[in-house]
Design goal:
Blueprint: H1 32-43, E1 62-66, H2 70-77, E2 83-86, H3 91-96, E3 104-107, E4 113-118, H4 119-130, H5 138-167, H6 175-210, E5 218-225, E6 231-237, E7 261-268, E8 271-279, H7 283-293, H8 297-311, E9 315-317, H9 319-323, H10 327-338, E10 366-370
Antiparallel strand pairs: 1-4, 2-3, 2-9, 5-8, 5-10, 6-7, 6-9, 7-8
Helix pairs in contact: 1-5, 4-5, 5-6, 8-10
Pfam family, one: SEC-C
Organism: Shewanella cyperi
Protein name: SEC-C domain-containing protein
């Protein structure tokens, strides 16, 4: 296909061909150093995710806000040197491990942080879960959900910037490779755009509740145990399949809004908690939750391990618990971590199904349903 120099470029950038892909195959290839530098810049973005009405009250200090309480949760599972195990999600680390994500030691000051709130609003919004014993109050449940959604929105906005970075990866490539890279980037961006829109709508509903403009329309499932949980997590997912292997929603169909589930596992006052939160109107998520509740209590922790590591990267592990695992258990967790990392592979529908590998270290006690 021949394109005139002054015609719009085939890649969809809106630029003229002569200012875009003309002669691209002769350009200097995008270097590893450039990619790492751009990735670090994207990861260093600073903002405050409070509602627009409150942004005028922000102070100038954007902090490394913890998505998982440092004092209550991370310290509970840390080793004697105040380190936990977690995934370091950055381009330099992916190059280091040849594309694999592996649990690594990190200090509790750095674990689970993102620059998504100013110091003033981080304190005001989350002191109810940072400085108070967890009791499952409406305010605490809202705060847990709000922080997880803000962190994921921050990540999705970063993914959009990374998608633009990916488009530059065809420099110095053959024209056929350019077509492939641009098509992949465009398809990837469509999915990110849809996910970001859905997250923004969810956060908008949480904003209205925060500001007292809307009544509570959230459902929660709270699991409690007498001991801290050795795996701490804060995340949000649109589940594809349930714990019985049933497909519940097709994320590839962008014409149908996906239903989201927020989940947190943490410790408070020496006790361990897992909290699931969702919009009450989300019937598919409720069906997902019911398949979890159908599992025998002795096997729920194993199901949670499969879920946490299979769908979330913002997961942190007690080094003592990890060191006590058998090789088959560690291999299973590594397999779960890598599930869904390859963009050319679909999430297996049996991802959460019991495969006979049992995990111990936390026994569910009380289970409370809120606003089902």
């Amino acid at each position: 296909m021949k394109i005139g120099r002054n015609e719009k470029c085939w890649c969809g950038s809106g630029k003229k061909f002569k200012h875009c892909h003309y002669g691209r195959e002769k350009e200097q290839p995008f270097s590893k150093g450039e990619a790492i530098g751009a990735s670090k810049k994207i990861g260093a973005r600073k903002c405050c995710y409070v509602p627009e009405e409150l942004k005028g009250e922000c102070d100038k200090k954007i902090i490394n806000a913890h998505t998982i309480s440092k004092s209550g949760s991370l310290k509970e599972i840390a080793d004697t040197t105040n380190h936990v195990l977690g995934l370091k999600i950055d381009l330099a680390n992916l190059f280091k491990h040849k594309g694999k994500l592996v649990p690594e030691r990190m200090g509790i000051n750095q674990a689970s942080t993102f620059t998504g709130f100013c110091a003033k609003h981080d304190k005001e919004l989350f002191s109810c879960i940072e400085d108070q014993e967890f009791c499952g109050s409406e305010r605490q449940l809202h705060a847990l959900m709000y922080r997880s959604v803000a962190k994921e929105l921050y990540a999705k906005e970063g993914s959009l910037l990374s998608s633009e970075l990916l488009k530059a990866g065809d420099r110095g490539k053959h024209q056929i490779d350019q077509l492939f890279i641009q098509k992949f980037a465009a398809d990837n961006q469509l999915g990110i755009d849809a996910a970001q829109k859905e997250l923004s709508e969810l956060k908008g509903k949480l904003d209205e509740q925060l500001l007292g403009k809307a009544s509570n329309n959230l459902s929660h499932l709270i699991m409690k145990a007498k001991s801290p949980i050795p795996v701490a997590v804060s995340s949000i997912v649109s589940p594809v399949s349930d714990f019985e292997g049933n497909l519940i929603q097709d994320l590839g169909d962008l014409s149908v809004p996906a239903e989201s589930l927020v989940f947190n596992s943490f410790s408070s006052d020496g006790k361990g908690y897992v909290v699931f939160s969702w919009l009450k109107e989300s019937s598919k998520v409720l069906g997902f939750i019911n398949t979890l509740l159908a599992i025998d209590r002795d096997n729920i922790f194993s199901a949670l391990v499969r879920f946490f590591f299979g769908v979330s990267e913002n997961t942190f592990i007690s080094p003592v618990w990890w060191d006590g695992l058998e090789t088959s258990q560690k291999d299973k967790i590594q397999e779960l971590i890598m599930a869904g990392v390859n963009p050319f592979e679909f999430e297996p529908k049996e991802l959460l199904v019991d495969d006979g590998i049992i995990f111990t270290g936390w026994d569910v006690g009380d289970i409370t349903k809120v606003n089902f």
